[in-house]
């Protein structure tokens, strides 16, 4: 903006005095006035041009770092061999037929080393196993302006057993939890974690609270809404079976 102010201020400042005795001296000739108008227009256009260049150069957001790819652990083929232990089932989660995808968030140094890692979703034993096996991973460093920089990535880790699936809760507009008026007035936020029991005939048998949000009206609305949903039964060895699944509801007011 300083550039614009400078170029506009250099345009001729032509005034007409009220004093009749000085009127003739202050009024330019028609030829001179015409040339001065062209000069003013030129300076104005030049000032706008510099303003456009200035704003276009500095008003844009800085380029973000180029992060390593987000993918399943097994697809991160550029990880040096031996930098991570291969995730394996232990006796308890295998016996409980626990399956699912754990999302791990890694903080990566400029050298590609894991500075910290946390599980973004809670799948109990599977989350603990994921953290245990993958906390020492190496990753390709992010590159910014040709130099390695620290970065953050999210890696989904899939745990599966042959013939085993979790029940699926089909949340749609008919059963989506609605923000209670009482909670809205208090601007209440939180996360409700539910355990949903689904029969082998695709019926929701029970909904209970595994982890409350801290607000009873949010938790009760979550239970009522999920009970209205339809479900698909989980399987064990390829056969539909009565099983539990976890549903997490984030309550956030913008």
Topology:
Layout: H1 2-9, H2 23-26, H3 30-58, H4 91-95, E1 100-108, E2 114-119, H5 125-134, E3 142-144, E4 147-149, E5 151-159, E6 168-170, H6 181-186, E7 190-198, E8 204-211, H7 216-227, E9 230-232, E10 234-236, E11 239-241, E12 243-251
Helix pairs in contact: 1-3
- DSSP helix fraction: 25-40%
Shape: flat
Radius of gyration: 33 Å
**What's the β-strand tally?**
12
Q: Give the SSE order as H and E letters.
A: HHHHEEHEEEEHEEHEEEE
Give structural notes.
- The chain has 254 residues and is an alpha+beta fold.
- It is flat, with a radius of gyration of 33 Å.
- It has helices spanning 2-9, 23-26, 30-58, 91-95, 125-134, 181-186, 216-227; strands at 100-108, 114-119, 142-144, 147-149, 151-159, 168-170, 190-198, 204-211, 230-232, 234-236, 239-241, 243-251.
- The longest helix has 29 residues, at 30-58.
- The relative contact order is 0.12.
- It has seven helices and twelve strands.
- The strands form five sheets. It has a three-stranded antiparallel sheet. The chain has a three-stranded antiparallel sheet with strand order 8-7-12, with helices on one face. Strands 3-4 form a two-stranded antiparallel ribbon.
Concise overview:
Helices cover 29% and strands 27% of the residues. The chain has helices at residues 2-9, 23-26, 30-58, 91-95, 125-134, 181-186, 216-227, and strands at residues 100-108, 114-119, 142-144, 147-149, 151-159, 168-170, 190-198, 204-211, 230-232, 234-236, 239-241, 243-251. A 3-stranded antiparallel beta sheet has the order 2-1-5. Strands 8-7-12 form a 3-stranded antiparallel beta sheet, covered by helices on one side.
